[in-house]
Amino acid sequence: MNRSILIVICDFLLISLLAFSTVDINKVTDQKAQRPLKLELATNQAPDAGKDLAAVMRLALDEERRGRSQLVGELAHAREELGKQQAMLGERQKQIETFQQEMQSREEQAQKLQQEQANLQQQYATAQANLQSLNQQLQNSSAEAVLSKDKLAAMEAELKKKLDESSAMQQQLAQLAQSNQMVLNQKQQLATQLQVAEAEKRSATEQVARMQDEVQAERAEKAKLAEGVKALASKSGELAQEVRENRPLASNTIYNQFMTNRVAAHFDAFRQGIMGTDKRRETQTVLVSDGRNTFALCHVQDTPLTLWNPGTDWEALTGTLTHGSGTVPIGSLSFQLQDPRVVVMPVTSAQARQLGCQVYTISPDPFKFQDAVLVGTKEYYYGECRFEIDASTPDYLKLDRNVLKGMFGKFNPSRGDLVFSRTGQLLGIMANSTYCMMIKNFDPAATFQFGQDMRQQHTGGTLSALYAQVTQLPAKLQ
Asked: Among residues 224, 152, 471, which one has the least CA distance to residue 341?
């Protein structure tokens, strides 16, 4: 047991004894006067307390001794274990040192082996190089020996050949000597033949010159004939073109061409509102070209757009052109400068080929024929009609309603109908039920780019301005 613990125990016992004795004294003092005071009890308790304290001290001392003995035994056992562990640690340390020495020795051996291997490889490379050099020398020596033998054989053959050639040349000299005389004789004969040939050559040259003159004369004559044929063919083509342009087509033919080549135009317009507004229109038209560009055209009433004041601010405008199985999107829509009620939509060459329909041309001479063929684009009626020139409206033709000859359907001309010349060319489009606006060009007054967001184009203001332009036209054209 620890000394400090023993001291604490002793203090605790001493305090306990004092507390017990004090309680007894208080009890004696608190009693009434009738009860007698017993002093022998107090005097007799002190020896018992000392004995108890001694006994306790003795017990504590014995316990301390036993604890110390136990601690000494444990300390001895711990020292013994520590000694064993130190001994084992020493052995391990020796083993580690031995292993390290062995590793170092093996590394040194490995380095020596590597050095020896490098030396052997170098010696092997040197031996290989020497072997190759010896092989090369051996081959060179063999080649030189063979070459010497070949040279000797070649020289012997050459010598034999020279001897043979010498004998042959001697024979040839003898033959040349014999044939020399024959050559001289032939030379004289050739000289005579050369004179005859020169005479024949002069005669042939003169004949060739005459033939060349004849060929040139024939070529000139043929060139004149070819020019005449070309001129005749050109005149024939011009005559055929003139015949086609001046030959009137039947009304049925013109209407059949329209039905075959008509293009369906679809329009969709949208603007935001309380309930939203979605407007859709559809009409039939044709493709027309001015020789440079191609357009599809129709009346503004056949589109979702309206010329009015105030105009409508559309937010989105889309459309397509369809013919047969071909469909192309409408990229933009322009209002014709001459009359904004006529709208045109540009079509590229690739789109025209995709649609696969005939492209009409503008009539170069609208006044060649007095009558024309009018075709309805919505009700599919058609008929022959006569147009008059109105001096007050030079860009328009007035429909003579007294001379109308309907061919199919309820023939009642109205705005948006197409008018074709008797040669099948596009003459114009009906601005109203009486006047036809002649198509001469496609100059735009304003253009809308189709798309899903047109708010930046402010269509309302443009439509109002175009409406003001229409109101300035003569009343009979409105």
From this structure: 471
Residue 258 CB burial class (10 angstroms; 0-12, 13-18, ≥19)? buried
Could you give the CA distance from residue 156 to residue 146 in angstroms, rounded to a whole number? 15
Burial of 390 (0-12, 13-18, 19+ CB in 10 A): middle
Could you tell me what percent of the chain has a pLDDT over 70?
Answer: 86
> Residue for token digits 């948006």?
416
In the chain the domains, ranked by start, together with CATH numbers, are: 249-477 (2.40.10)
Q: Which residue has the tokens 């009642």?
A: 412
Cβ-based neighbour number of residue 381 at 10 Å: 20
Cα 173 to Cα 364: distance, rounded to the nearest angstrom: 98
How far apart are alpha carbons 340 and 464 in whole angstroms?
A: 11
The sign of the CA dihedral 441, 443, 445, 451 is: positive
Taking phi first (over 0 means left), then psi (-120 to 50 degrees means alpha), and beta for anything else, what does residue 147 get?
alpha
pLDDT at site 257: 93
- For the segment 414-445, what is each residue's pLDDT rounded down to a tens digit? 899 999 999 889 999 999 989 999 999 999 99
Q: Provide the pLDDT for residue 119.
A: 78
Beta-carbon contacts of residue 470 (< 8 Å; ≥ 6 apart): 307, 339, 340, 341, 478
Q: Cα–chain-centroid distance for residue 73?
A: 91
What are the start-end ranges of the H helices in 247-301? 251-261
User: Over 90: is that where the pLDDT of 62 sits?
Assistant: no
Task: Decide if pLDDT at 108 tops 60.
Answer: yes
Q: What is the mean pLDDT of residues 401-420?
A: 80
- The torsion angles phi and psi of 220, rounded to 5 degrees, stand at -60, -40
CA-based nearest residue to 28, from 16, 40, 11:
40
* Pairing of the two strands 382-389 and 396-408: antiparallel
State which amino acid sits at residue 236: S
